[in-house]
Amino acid sequence: MNRFSKFFSLALVIGTLSSVQAKIIHVSEEEAYNEALKNNQQLIVEFSADWCSVCNNIKQPFEEIANEDEFGSVTFMQVDVDKLDSVSKQNGVVGVPTFVYLEKGDKKVEEIGVQNLPAFKDHLRDNLRKTFQVAKNAPVDIVMGNRSKTMADITSQDVAVDKDAPAKESNFFSRFINAIIAFFMFIIEKIREFFVTIVNAIKGFFGK
Question: Nearest-5° angle of CA 72, CA 130, CA 76?
Fold first, then answer.
């Protein structure tokens, strides 16, 4: 009976974890990405990599948001930049993690990096609500193509679907600035991890 209970508990945990991840589409082929782009009205794509510590830290929160009922109309997708380089280049990805919000195939918002890990879930919820207008309590002045500038917009980039040269130059400059920000964020994260390791080592030494 005891063994049965343990087996049942293990099966329940595995089933719960599977259901949490079920909402996220993991794409490894360009054809599958294009198909998802064509068949989903509202789509958020996270471009990540296995070696990215920030990507690993936000993996669970991203999955939890994907399974919230409020965002049932939004499709969540993950693309590994090392496995699908063509799609990464197609979206102009210059750093990871990068979040691209698309509606009916058009890019609405692009965000590079994570400014505040503890506040990541709230920040992601706010961006989803503003970009896709999925929440009933969304501010009235937020309309597609003419969004009010809030604090969240400081860390996100509105990308107009425009083919003229000035727009391309502007987008390139914005991506360049975002790439620099993402690079410094990566360096800061590594320095923080280094000091945490040193502090833990000192604590362990004196603890003995």
Answer: 35
Query: Which token pair is 32?
Result: 């599958």
What type of residue is 205? F
C-alpha closest to that of 23 among 79, 66, 73, 78: 66
Q: Structurally, how many domains does the chain consist of?
A: 1
User: Which is nearest to 105 in space by CA: 33, 29, 37?
Assistant: 37
Residue 6 lies in a domain: no
Residue 175 falls in which region: left (phi positive, over 0), alpha (psi -120 to 50) or beta? alpha
Residue 125 is part of a domain; what is its CATH number? 3.40.30.10
Counting residues of the chain whose pLDDT is more than 90, the rounded percentage is 49
Query: Does 8 fall in a domain?
Result: no
Q: Give the domain extent around 142.
A: 21-207
| Catalytic residue set | 52, 55
The answer to whether residue 15 sits within a structural domain is no
- Segment 85-129, tens digit of pLDDT: 999 999 999 999 999 999 999 999 999 999 999 999 999 999 999
